[in-house]
Amino acid sequence: QVQLVESGGGLVQAGGSLRLSCAPSGRTFSRNAMGWFRQAPGKDREFVAAIVWSDGRTYFADSVKGRFTISRDNAKNTVYLQMNTLKPEDTAVYSCSASFRTTYLSSVASYSDWGQGTQVTVSS
What we know:
Layout: E1 3-7, E2 10-13, E3 18-25, E4 33-39, E5 46-52, E6 58-60, E7 68-73, E8 78-83, E9 92-99, E10 113-114, E11 118-123
Parallel strand pairs: 2-11
Antiparallel strand pairs: 1-3, 3-8, 4-5, 4-9, 5-6, 7-8, 9-10, 9-11
C-alpha cells in the first residue's frame, strides 16, 4: 500500500475557504483516479469529489457542487480540493484516496489506498 498524506485542514468561519492537498509519501505509485471523502462524528464516510488522472474528469457530491473544485498537478503528483463558501455542515475529517478505477468513483470500495485525514472545522 501507498501512504497518502493530506494537508491544509484547519478552522475557518462559515463562508470562508480552505485548500486541501494530498500527495503520496515515499515511492512513486500509479493510479487512475484520486478522491476525497469526509467523515463527520457519528456519521458514515461520504464521497466528496474525485478526479480521473489521465483526462481530468471530475465528479462531485451534490452537497458540494458549485462550492468545491478538485484538481491535480502532474509535476507535483498532488491532488487538491479547493473548498469555497464553507458551511458548518462541511465540518469533518477529510481523507484522500487512490483508485485504479475510473468508474464508480463515489464508492469507498473503489479505492485501495487512503490517507489518515485532515480535520476541517467550519464555525458559524
